[in-house]
Design a protein that fits this description.
Strand order of the largest sheet: 2-9-8-4-6
Mean pLDDT: 83
Helix content: 10-25%
Number of helices: 1
Number of strands: 9
Low-confidence stretches: none
Order of helices and strands: HEEEEEEEEE
């Protein structure tokens, strides 16, 4: 026979376990692969790509902001509130003026949200093509 305090403790532990199991998993960001690679010809000054992501959590994802580490890229979130198991979309706009002369560049972005894996950092690759249309080699 158990003592009164240990029985109460057991009841509380069972209740706590039931409450924790009943909580939905928090929102979580997952990028849909493959990520787009940006290709710029020698004559192109701007590029726009779309990045898709999924909320693989059980709560609604709220995107607060997405920032680029380079002034040459801006991001617009087309859907700031993403229900569970749904897809969101970001549009990345790039100006070649800020990339320098390297044939290949990596742009880093930081997404702030209510997701359990926030801040979420991702990178996009930019390739330059020479005047003949060939990819320049680093």
């Amino acid at each position: 026979m158990c003592s009164r305090s240990s029985c109460h403790r057991g009841v509380w532990l069972l209740l706590l376990a039931a409450v924790l199991r009943a909580q939905p998993r928090p929102a979580e960001i997952e990028l849909l692969q493959p990520l787009p690679e940006i290709e710029l010809s020698a004559a192109e000054r701007f590029a726009v790509v779309t990045v898709l992501f999924r909320n693989c959590g059980e709560q609604t994802l709220q995107v607060y902001s997405v920032r680029s580490e380079c002034w040459c890229a801006a991001v617009t979130v087309l859907r700031g509130s993403v229900p569970p198991d749904s897809v969101g979309m970001m549009r990345v706009m790039l100006t070649a003026a800020g990339l320098g002369q390297e044939p290949r560049a990596r742009l880093r972005f930081r997404l702030e949200s209510n997701a359990c894996n926030s801040p979420f950092v991702f990178e996009l690759t930019v390739h330059r093509r020479d005047a003949g249309g060939e990819l320049e080699r680093p």
